[in-house]
Amino acid sequence: MIKTAAKLPLYVLALLILVFTGFPFFFMINTALKGQFEFMTNPWSFPQQLQLENFTSLFESEFMSYFFNSMIVSTISVVLVIILSAMASYPLARMKFKLNRPIFFLFIMGMMIPIHTTLIPIFILTKNLGLYDTIWALIGPYIAFAIPISIFIFTQFMQEIPKELEEAASIDGCGHYRVFWKVLFPMLTPAISTVAIYNFIHIWNEFVFALILTSSKENATLPLGLREFYGEFSINVPAMMAALALGSLPLIFVYLVAQEKVVKGLSAGSVKG
Q1: Is 187 domain-assigned?
Q2: d(CA 116, CA 28)
Q3: Mean pLDDT over residues 133-151, rounded?
Q4: Secondary structure, 3-state, the chain
Q5: CA-based angle 167:171:177, to the nearest 5?
Q6: What is the pLDDT of residue 270?
Q7: Range of weakest confidence among 60-69, 165-174, 238-247
Q8: What is the spatial distance between Cα 48 and Cα 30, in angstroms, rounded to a whole number?
Q9: Whole-angstrom Cα distance, residue 7 to residue 2?
Q10: What CA–CA distance (Å, rounded) separates 125 from 131?
């Protein structure tokens, strides 16, 4: 009883955080189930009649094209970022050579480059490569700007892995290639999950590069597609909220799955040794 009373302030704080973070999502779903007139007259009430047309109409529009474009770009970009960043982090974290730290700090300096300063050169490069107005034009910039923070995360995590595991694998005849893929990479699950969550959310919501490097509806991503709900003189708020609700499902799924991997990886690491 005493322990429960001592934890009461934590429970209250957790409840307040839940209300504070959960209310926007509740408001989004509540609004998506209303009609435009009902929302304009009473935006804070519960819907008097569920307007499921806001959701069903999305499947009959170009929304699904935007959705799948974002899914393809985000998935490919995140997978390549994980592979490339993990491979680049291996020599930086496990090998000793003169340029180790300078190369590492060079990657970290990439985090300091403002994205908007690169729009013009990336646009020109994309045009010269013949990739303009394709979803493939987005993958390169997304990977490039995600690699610095990803290398930082992988390198710091990899340095905490005991070197005895690597030495034991080397004694058994494993080279660097097999040591990385068979020994180290499976142990990077928490770092992989962290990199996946961070980059997937960022790439899924990215707007500027998608606006500059694509021009047709066929290759537009979801953030660009949401602009269609803006009229010249009005905004279809319930329809937009329905689109946002469906568009947020992949983010919620990735977060829940990857978060579980992070917790399991940390828990497994805490009981080893």
Answers
A1: yes
A2: 30
A3: 94
A4: CHHHHHHHHHHHHHHHHHHHHHHHHHHHHHHHCCCHHHHHHCCCCCCCCCCCHHHHHHHCCCHHHHHHHHHHHHHHHHHHHHHHHHHHHHHHHHCCCCCHHHHHHHHHHHHHCCHHHHHHHHHHHHHHHCCCCCCHHHHHHHHHHHHHHHHHHHHHHHCCCCHHHHHHHHHCCCCHHHHHHHHHHHHHHHHHHHHHHHHHHHHHHCCHHHHHHCCCHHHCCHHHHHHHHECCCCECHHHHHHHHHHHHHHHHHHHHHHHHHHHHHHHHHHCCC
A5: 70
A6: 41
A7: 165-174
A8: 11
A9: 9
A10: 9
Q: Is residue 45, in this structure, part of any structural domain at all?
A: no
Considering Cα of 201, then 207, then 213, then 218, what sign does the dihedral take? positive
> In CATH, what number is assigned to the domain containing residue 201?
1.10.3720.10
How remote is the C-alpha of 106 from its chain's centroid?
A: 24
Domain count, the chain: 1
pLDDT mean over 260-270: 54
230 - beta bridge partners?
A: 235
Query: Can you tell me the mean pLDDT for 262-270?
Result: 51
The residue type found at 42 is: N
Mean pLDDT of 118-132: 94
Residue 54: pLDDT over 70: yes
Domain span including residue 149 = 60-270
Residue 80 has pLDDT above 90, yes or no: yes
Confidence of residue 69 (pLDDT cuts 50, 70, 90): very high
Q: Residue range 149-153: average pLDDT?
A: 93
Predicted pLDDT at 166: 81
Q: Is residue 7 part of a domain?
A: no
Residue 43: inside a domain, yes or no?
A: no
